[in-house]
Each structure stands twice: as C-alpha cells, then as structure tokens.
Amino acid sequence: MTNLTNITAELDCDGHLADPNDWTPDIAKQLAKNLEIQLDETHFLVLSAVRDYYQAFSHSPTTRPLIKYLSQTLPNLQLDNAKLQTLFNTGLVARHVNRLAGLPKPANCL
To answer: How do residues 12-42 score in pLDDT, each as one tens digit?
Structure first.
C-alpha cells in the first residue's frame, strides 16, 4: 500500500494502481501531484475516455491508439500527441495518462 496524502491505494512496481477498480478522481489528483500536474476538466475528460477505452478493449492504450480513440470520442478537443504532451507535462503520454486513469502500464511502454 502506498499512502497518497490521505488516500491509500495499492500501486504496482511501475506506480500504477494495482486494481483499476480502486480509481477515483481524488486518487487521480494525488497521482497527478507526483507528476506536477494540476488536473482540470479537460484532463478528466481524457481520463474518462481512457477508462472507457480500457473497458471496451480490455487493455491500456499505447500512444497511437490513444490519440485515435480520443480524436473519435472527444473531437472538440482536437487532441494530438503534442497537445497531450503539453496537457500532461510529459513526453510519455500513454504512460502518464494510463497511470492517472488508474490503469496498467501499456504494453511495450518504457
């Protein structure tokens, strides 16, 4: 168990939730603090879409499928890799988005 400032959740060795069902918006906020990200409405729209992807396909998306799925499900946000990198403060978009969404690390991800 790892204490995330008043929220206790079990994390795996990569810092992702051990059980995606334990995810809450408050846990996402605490995980985001570790990545120096302040989550807002846009972040939560993306995280919700990523969780929907996981439910539909039973695996965490890597970057290309993630961007394709987000462009289909959140077309008004016009998200691409560069926008996601800025939004999530990282070059490891799929890794951080899945982590904040409470999902396992994507396959073949650093």
So the answer is: 888 889 999 999 999 999 999 988 899 999 9
- Name the domain count of the chain: 1
Q: What is the DSSP string of 21-56?
A: GG--HHHHHHHHHHTT----HHHHHHHHHHHHHHHH
Catalytic residue selected from 31, 102, 109, 110: 109
Residue 50, domain extent: 25-101
Both structure tokens of 71: 């462009």
Q: Look up 109 and say whether it is catalytic.
A: yes
Query: Within a 10 A sphere around the Cβ of 17, how many other Cβ atoms?
Result: 25
Which pair of structure tokens corresponds to residue 1? 């168990």
